[in-house]
Amino acid sequence: MTLPAIGVLLLLAALYILLLPARWRGWTLFLVSLIAVYVLQPRLAIRWLDYSLPTLTLGVVAAAWWFTRAPEQRPTRDDAAAFGLLVGVALLLTLPRYLELPLIFTSRPPPIESVILAVALGITAALLAWRVGRGRQKGLLTLCLLAIIALFILVKTPPLTTALAGGLRASAGQDVSLALPNEIGWLGFSYIAFRLIHLIRDRQTGILPTLSLREAVTFTVFFPAITAGPIDRAERFIGDYRSLPLLRVREANRITIGLSRIAVGLFKKFVIADSLALFSLNAATAAQATSTGALWINLYAYAFQLYFDFSGYTDIAIGIAYLFGILLPENFNRPYLKPNIAAFWQSWHISLSDWVRFYVYSPLSRRLIKRKPPLPNYTIIFICTLLTMVIIGLWHGVTLTFFIWGVWHALGLFAHKWWTDRTRKWYRGLAGWRKRVWTVAGILLTFHFVVLGWVWFTLPDVSTALRVFAGLAGVGVR
Amino acid sequence: MRGWEWLTNLHYDWRMILRVVGKATLLFALTNIVFALLYPASLAAVMRTSIYNGLVPGRARFPYGASPDSYNVLITHLDALFSSHEIARPKAGDEYRVIVLGDSAAWGYLLDPDQTTSAQLNTLNLTVNGRRVVAYNLALVETSVTKDLLILEEALAYQPDLIVWRVTARTFTDEENGENVYLTENPERVRALANQYNLALDQSRYPLPSIWENTLIARRQDLADWLRLQLYGIAWANTGIDQANIPYTPRVEVPLESSEAYDQYAEPVTLTAIDLRLDRISAAHTLTDVPILLVNEPMYIGSGDNADARYNEFYPRWAYDQYRALLAVSAAQNGWNYLDLWNTIAPVEFTDSPLHLTPVGETQLAALLASTLLDVADGRLDTIQQGSEP
After folding, report:
1. Which helix (H) or strand (E) holds B101?
2. B2 contact A CB<8A
3. Burial per residue of B39-49, b for 16 or more beta-carbon CB atoms within 10 angstroms, e otherwise
4. How much is the ipTM here?
5. What pTM value is reported for the model?
6. Which residue from A120, A311, A460, B104 has the highest number of Cβ atoms inside 10 Å of its Cβ?
7. Does B227 contact chain A (CB < 8 Å)?
8. Cβ of B68 under 8 Å from any chain A Cβ?
9. What confidence tens digit (pLDDT) does each residue in B298-349 have?
């Protein structure tokens, strides 16, 4: 989110707080979220793609709602109105193509006829799928789940993304040889995918509350959190969303806390993180470093740049959402001050690790525990931890370095678990200065384990990462 | 909000918010006013604060250009420039300090910091009366004799023992073409120099800022650039990189145009010492007793079509010959130490412009400078010296 975008959202928040009747709050958040999907989408080189991707986002979310409705849930007038508004926004944003309007919402959109055709095809496909899948909701939901995972893999795996970019360029009459993986820059898709998987899985397990289309769309593409989270849970979100008409937003407490949170976030992201970015570790600075000390400085700078950038963004998102009456979950809790790697993962990108724990670790461990013949406990723990952390790694990008990063943390977590089990009694006996020394040592060890893991996270390939590790150990640099 | 209890546990009311906002606004306004009233001392105090030569080594040359790839930011405040430069470190007892002034050629455009004239001089292990010669690159990437004079005046605070001043025709004639940011951003010093030494300078081009332009908020770009320069110090220390080199077309491959235009003159005219702003050189000699070696820097001399009309894309023959003659006459009349190296480097050693040298070219130039430099240091040279052709 850029500074101008934050400025616009603050202006909207002011209007929302000061002028908007309470009963319109829910619809306002819905409408702003629809438009934000287009406005926040980065401009892309492939023709019409920065219009098509947001439209596809809304279409996928609407379809996901349709398929995850409770069997007894019938569409209401509210749902019809929400759908009409959703389609209306998509069609309205094609108008800059025909009228001399400033292209502030999207770059040059496609012809309106093609959008209408795409919408009609989408609705037809969804209705057909629903009709065919009637009575087989579980199977249909599994198909939806696999489709989202397949789409995720497609847009996050560089060779596949490059091929997709080539295909889209060819269809748009553009030079295929210029295709690059980062041309499919789909705003917030990683987060949207996880929110949709959450809806689907909760419907499959029967714990998803009844959501209207408006609630489902607002939850999935909620504008403060669409770019980089946090990943909220539907039941928690709609609790706040449904309370909006009754909420007193025009109170000094809410406004002060919201604005303070935003101010802290702005300072963290645009002052501290952007300053550290000038010399933090990346492929270029790794190649330019002239000493081991320089590499360590670059690496520490990256560790703190990442933290301040991400947590600063989260502060801004939480602050803006709070002004609008929604309390998003926290995502960070002083992660670099944690005494062990397990505590780190309960404090870093909390919403992501909670999600993966809920939807991967817990179900998998339950299944493995029930397995006949039973597996040893540590084998179960290792498998579940490994798969969980690998998924977290690959969620950032389907590349070897992200995979290794996931494995790195899995090994760390497993080692911590093994060590803790063996030393629990001894640790409980620690007191006074011995405990403090052990805690500080734990913090330093955990911090450096995480920091070294960032080498895999930030560098583009294994050979560069290995060169950096060698450099950090004093090999290959002065 | 877990972890934010320090923020959420307090109770806020409108009166408290108004009090805080009011006090903050007042404090902000007061700070701005005080900063403006204390200007230029207020800004200078910030600009002199630096992590260079302390936490990180000083830069080998002034930062040039706003380029994140090369860890550069455009800095025009002289205090910030000097405080980030290695010349700001204390002068050693056995150091004979030589400063090199000039334009982009002297700065070392397309050269690494260890390939410039000053760096090459430092590899020659020269000594003057038992003191080792240490050369510092104080060139800036702008051709302007007034800019050079500005830098020279500031550099005197750093105890130079000898000044090598690389000049070319454009040093004297380019100044009025376009805006020289080092002059426009330091109008107080430019005007002071002009008044003190009666320089022929249009002071209206260098207006003094109003008090509103000296507030903290008005100077935010300067402060942001200063901060960025400090952060880039870490990158400088880590990498030694201060320029992103780009591909170029060697001068030998660039054909000469037929036009004889030069500066504002479409056709040959007779140039005068006023046109060449030689009063700046006189001012420099009045300003300080430190020996100055004026060097007419080497340039690319083209051949082939139109070589009878032009030396290169910068200079038609009529203009450059007049400049050389005027400079030589002025140097002789005023007793300036003057070394003319205009045709001493082979054409193949020029890079993207008729003045920018390759590393080999700079090595040759340093060798040519060395003996003359020692002569000047020993007080043996006060007449024109002509370099030899390659």
Report:
1. strand B95-101
2. yes
3. beebbbebbee
4. 0.86
5. 0.90
6. A311
7. yes
8. yes
9. 999 988 888 888 999 999 999 999 999 999 999 988 889 999 999 999 999 9
